[in-house]
Write a structure and sequence with these properties.
Shape: globular
Number of helices: 12
Oligomer: single chain
Strand content: 15-25%
CATH architecture of the largest domain: 3-Layer(aba) Sandwich
Strand order of the largest sheet: 8-7-9-10-11-14-15
Radius of gyration: 21 Å
CATH superfamily of the largest domain: Response regulator
CATH class of the largest domain: Alpha Beta
Largest sheet: 7 strands, mixed
Number of strands: 15
Distance between the termini: 31 Å
Order of helices and strands: HEHEEHEHEEHEHEHEHEHEHHHEEEE
Number of domains: 2
Structural class: alpha/beta
């Protein structure tokens, strides 16, 4: 794979300097192709984060554009489907990918979207690799679904440990009703924080689409918690943060990995200063040579795409999910989805987020989460939290 990286880099450079970009990436008519499906929310409430995840996958495809099967070189074609941040649309998108005869699928950002699509992938015998979908239910009971990210029990426990170790003895929890990511992560935080001896002094859910949190925050303020854990969507997060500070609430505000998005900072403004969150990747601490190469190359890619050059964890995870797919295809030496699914169980991937192997439920064997803080208008590394498995 390292040799393909050099080949891909040279090809990309030639492509960017060529006068006719439309011809770049073309293939011979008789060159065999293997299709990798990508299901992401490119529009709707999760569109910003889904796009960041997609960028990581697209970049990986430029770095590793081919795979060898049976001694023959296959071009990897990405078949993208927008699930529009909607579970019903996720079912439709997964069905469309099945119709395109993809050999493996990547995604989706949003655990609920992944779960909705997962049933379709399982019915069609298509292995799927989640990038950042952290809810345990994504892989539970679905032998076709794997994921390269940590799960909510780990990151919820990591944040609880961080809070308690930094003198937070009381916590308030705010989660979104009907959101599996939000309610699940909140539950794991509460369980871990209470087991450490901390006290949950306020626990409240809000409705999807809610924009005014002042009533909830006023009631919370009366309990004077040391920390507010409010894992939520990118739509709700800046509103909760800003309205809390407007009410004079000074408690530490914390969220999950979904908050690592520039929209939180840009929309919450100065109120975002000091917010802490869990993350699966930190660009200042490359885990291996692959990670170092990814960081350098992806920044150049983002610059060419006129995107913010900071690297969110979802992009690194998208990159790693693609690498896992390529590794499994090579191990299976086949385009057959069933063979690829079987191969995924035993692959070892050196990715941007570290070494990845999968356990019996398809989850990545990970026990570490980064804790980041928003400081001076950007996400900065604070510490790490390692969880015993």
């Amino acid at each position: 794979m390292k040799n393909r990286r050099n080949i891909a880099a040279a090809a990309l450079a030639a492509c960017l300097t060529a006068s006719a970009l439309a011809g770049c990436g073309g293939r011979k008519a008789d060159e065999p192709v293997i299709r990798i499906g990508v299901i992401e929310p490119l529009t709707g409430a999760n569109g910003a984060a889904g796009f960041q995840e997609m960028l990581g996958i697209r970049y990986a495809n430029q770095v590793y554009p081919t795979v060898t099967i049976g001694g023959e070189t296959y071009t990897v074609k990405l078949v993208e489907a927008d699930n529009k941040s909607d579970c019903a649309e996720a079912v439709n998108a997964a069905g469309a990918l099945a119709g395109e005869q993809v050999s493996v699928a990547l995604g989706s950002y949003g655990s609920d979207l992944s779960m909705a699509a997962g049933a379709v992938f399982a019915e069609n015998g298509i292995p799927a690799i989640g990038c950042s979908c952290t809810n345990p239910q994504v892989t539970e009971g679905n032998d076709s679904y794997f994921r390269v990210c940590f799960s909510d029990p780990l990151q919820g426990t990591a944040m609880a440990n961080y809070a308690y170790q930094n003198n937070a003895k009381s916590a308030a929890v705010i989660t979104q009703l009907g959101d599996d990511y939000s309610s699940g992560l909140g539950g794991y935080f509460k369980e871990a924080f209470s087991s450490l001896g901390g006290q949950i002094v306020y626990d409240q859910q809000f409705q999807a689409g809610q924009t005014d949190f002042r009533s909830i925050l006023t009631n919370l303020q009366a309990q004077n918690p040391d920390i507010i854990f409010a894992p939520s969507s990118l739509t709700a997060a800046p509103l909760i943060i800003r309205q809390a500070r407007e009410l004079g609430i000074t408690a530490v505000i914390a969220g999950g990995d979904a908050w690592e998005n520039s929209a939180v900072i840009s929309e919450a403004g100065a109120a975002a200063e000091g917010v802490v969150l869990t993350a699966a990747f930190d660009e200042s601490e490359p885990a291996n040579d692959e990670a170092a190469a990814f960081i350098k190359g992806f920044r150049e890619y983002l610059r060419a795409e006129k995107q913010d050059e900071s690297i969110p964890a979802v992009s690194a995870l998208g990159y790693d999910a693609y690498l896992a797919a390529i590794k499994a295809i090579e191990a299976a030496d086949s385009t057959d989805p069933a063979a690829i699914c079987q191969a995924l169980s035993s692959v070892v991937v050196e990715g941007a987020t570290g070494t990845i192997t999968f356990n019996e439920t398809g989850d990545a064997n990970k026990n570490l989460a980064f804790i980041k803080v928003i400081r001076d208008g950007r996400f900065q590394f604070l510490t790490t939290s390692t969880i015993s498995r």
